[in-house]
From TrEMBL:
GO cellular component, one term: cytoplasm
Protein name in UniProt: Nucleoside-diphosphate-sugar epimerase
The NAD-dependent epimerase/dehydratase domain, residue ranges: 2-230
Top-level taxon of the source organism: Bacteria
Transmembrane region(s): none
A GO MF term: aldehyde dehydrogenase (NAD+) activity
InterPro entries named among the record's database cross-references: Epimerase_deHydtase, NAD(P)-bd_dom_sf, NAD(P)-dependent_oxidoreduct
Pfam families tied to this protein: Epimerase
């Protein structure tokens, strides 16, 4: 039996689809039944018989911080895909991020060990990869830099990775994947889906940075292949392409048949934007939307080396233009 955490997220829902399509016995953790509708929507993009596939999943209500609930979910489990995470770049969310991303992962690792799970696959992020000396080209061996102005999200995902590596020292076999920006259909109010939403609704700005991205289906394919392989206690960068933001946004606009962004957001404009957003938060309590690390990442031109995954698995990535075209098609179905 396979356990999937974060099954109602972008990666988790696509992973569940592939596992049940392959007729694998799957148990998935959920927090609210309402979020299961996301999974049904994702399944409907790929199969007319999506409800029958959805009903193959054994759902268990559990919170990553509730050990008794998790213990029930772990009964008779042999393999675990840990996709669950909180994503936020707002400094005010740091303690919530620590709870979910670090403490939650600690619980998953401990239960994997106590239940003699054969192998764990953990979904991390390129945010945990360090900087190279020239701040341009990094790989799996590049060390984390604690002195860098890291986002609270990156800090907690790195802390979660430490827990996975601690598990490997205690006998747990594990692999970690570090995806870039994951492009996929089904969730349109945050993550990459929100980018499609904003472009569709007239996003005017672009930056001169590059986006390191990958098709969600490639993330899932690599995860399954790695978990089922003899490879263990390794991490893998998952980035298909590095594309200029202007080109990336223009291609989304083209496939959504809307006007592309046409105003360059320069670095000084971005600096003013996050400061004004911070001030608005302090004066009115309005949740942060334009956080410094998130905005600075849109100016980033770091290159993430994907040689390792291609060499180990002979992996071929889906071209991002093909991915964008498919995601845009599904977006327009509900627009």
């Amino acid at each position: 039996m396979i356990l999937v955490t974060g099954g109602t997220g972008l990666v988790g829902s696509h992973l569940l689809y592939q596992l049940v399509a392959d007729d694998k016995p799957v148990r998935a953790i959920y927090r609210t039944e309402k979020k299961q509708e996301i999974v049904k929507r994702v399944f409907s993009y790929y199969s007319k018989d999506y409800l029958a596939l959805f009903n193959k999943i054994e759902w268990v209500e559990a919170n990553l911080l509730n050990i008794p609930q998790l213990s029930e979910a772990f009964k008779n489990i042999e393999h675990v895909y840990h996709c669950a995470a909180m994503v936020s770049f707002a400094p005010n969310d740091y303690h919530k991020l620590r709870k979910t991303n670090i403490e939650g992962t600690t619980n998953i690792v401990n239960l994997c060990i106590s239940h003699h799970v054969k192998k764990l696959c953990y979904v991390s992020s390129v945010a945990t990869i360090g900087d190279s000396e020239n701040n341009r080209h990094v790989n799996e061996e590049t060390h984390w830099n604690p002195e860098k102005d890291n986002s609270v999200y990156a800090i907690t995902k790195y802390g979660a990775e430490i827990e996975v590596w601690r598990g490997t020292q205690e006998g747990l076999d594990a692999v970690i994947v570090n995806p870039g920006v994951i492009i996929g259909a089904g969730i349109w109010n945050h993550g990459s889906g929100e980018i499609f939403n904003k472009v569709y609704n007239g996003l005017p700005f672009y930056t001169q940075g590059h986006i390191a991205c990958i098709d969600v289906k490639d993330v899932v394919k690599s995860m399954i292949t790695l978990l089922e392989s003899p490879i263990k206690n390794e991490r893998f960068i998952l980035v298909a392409e590095h594309m200029p933001y202007k080109k990336f946004l223009n291609y989304i606009a083209k496939n959504l048949e809307v006007k592309p962004p046409h105003i360059e957001a320069k670095s000084w404009m971005i600096s003013i934007a996050w400061r004004l957003d911070w001030l608005k938060n302090k004066l009115t309590g309005t949740p942060r939307k334009l956080v410094k690390p998130m905005l600075k990442s849109t100016l980033n031109k770091t290159v993430y080396d994907n040689t390792k995954i291609k060499a180990e698995l002979d992996f071929q990535f889906t071209p991002i233009e093909v991915c964008i075209k498919n995601v845009a098609k599904n977006f327009l179905k509900q627009a």
